[in-house]
Amino acid sequence: xxxxxxxxxxxxxxxxxDGTGSFVHGxxxxxxxxxxxxxxxxxxAVAYSFADADPGLVDRAAKSxxxxxxxxxxxxxxxxxxxxxxxxxxxxxxxxxxxxxxSASSGKIIKGARAQLDLVVDMLDYYAGWADKFTxxxxxxxxxxxxxxxxxxxxxxxxxxxxNSPLYLxxxxxxxxxxxxxxxxxKPSELTSLTALAFAKIAVEAGLPPGVLNVICGxxxxxxxxxxxxxxxxxxxxxxxxxxxxxxAAQAAARPIPCLLELGGKSANIVFADADLERAAxxxxxxxxxxxxxxCAAGSRLLVQKGIYDKFIALLEGRLSRYRIGSPLDEDIxxxxxxxxxxxxxxxxxxxxxxxxxxxxxSGNAVPSSNGYFVSPTILADATNEMSVARxxxxxxxxxxxxxxxxxxxxxxxxxxEFGLAGAVWTRDIARGHRVANKVNAGLFWINxxxxxxVSSPFGGxxxxxxxxxxxxxALYEYTRTKSVWLPIAEGS
Length: 493
Known about the structure:
Shape: globular
Radius of gyration: 23 Å
Number of strands: 22
């Protein structure tokens, strides 16, 4: 029996005072709005509560960010790089405490939380290396002038991040913005704000000037909406649902300021008859069930060629028992709880709808008998691409399996969707693999693999999956603007 974690003890370990709601200008502060509860997903009990941000706190955070920006931009790029490396080292010294807190508040399994903390350290190191190396160009213009470009930081960036991988996604977005000399106003999900607060404290203690990274916690209407209207904010980054992303983009466009949107997905994982079926079956379940399916790039639509369809579904069904469900603290489990009750209800409703529409439900191990937000890993077999479960993002451990006949059929089904985030193909015909990768609408695509990502490679989607790229060198363009400078150098020019 795994003992329940003491949230109060975890907060004390990372230095967060009880009742803290936000972190502004290097200090923890409390809001004065309505009470917000953070529940432990493993049993549904209230684990922590804080007050929503009030208008005074929003005003204070925006002004602090402007002040921090001035200080941060006054430092050389090399000195900013040193600070980011110091933050990386400090996070590396606190990975276990942060992983425990992440798991407790989000429901992420502990081994997954630890793995993501290692990646957080890597992100900070990667962008520290870019801080003094992302430069402009000299352009050989005619007419006897010197023309060169410089890349300037945008200013204060409002970043709104979700609950499925809280700290990982917060740093994934904050690190490139900070490296380019911007200040970040981070608004994490009100359901999973604790590790963002802990990270901000670590960053300031490691040398980040106060105000360069502020964390404001509360509901979207209390924080995001008023901050988008603030003149200090020069860009909005939103990671979350497509429906909310559209609203954020519309609010930003009214000013207007640019957005980076990382939204939903319904990615197609395509298996041809000539594939290594054992490998493809293992990967299909990992693609669908990693992080309990709470993953925008999940391989949630499984397209299988008809000649091997029944055999492949049988392979998956035989493997389902390997996915053990339980407490996120248990080192041996693969499926933890869903983060919140509202999302759990949506997943269950979508599965019921899929069965009513004609899909065949195949379920894995039974969920623990508790009040936690658990759902059994599920395959909805024999589905069609017209079903709502094949068209809407479920965001849980549910794979929708659809048969197809030809290569052209598979590509058509994969592209018959509003999203364009990720996808994969499994085949021994490498030419076919490249053809499919070229024709499927996706910002990220794998051949004979799934889920491999790294901060050095661009990540982002097309269409209803959003726009912009949040990693790699391309992310540095998202957080800078180009200035063209001219100077006459030839006589008479």
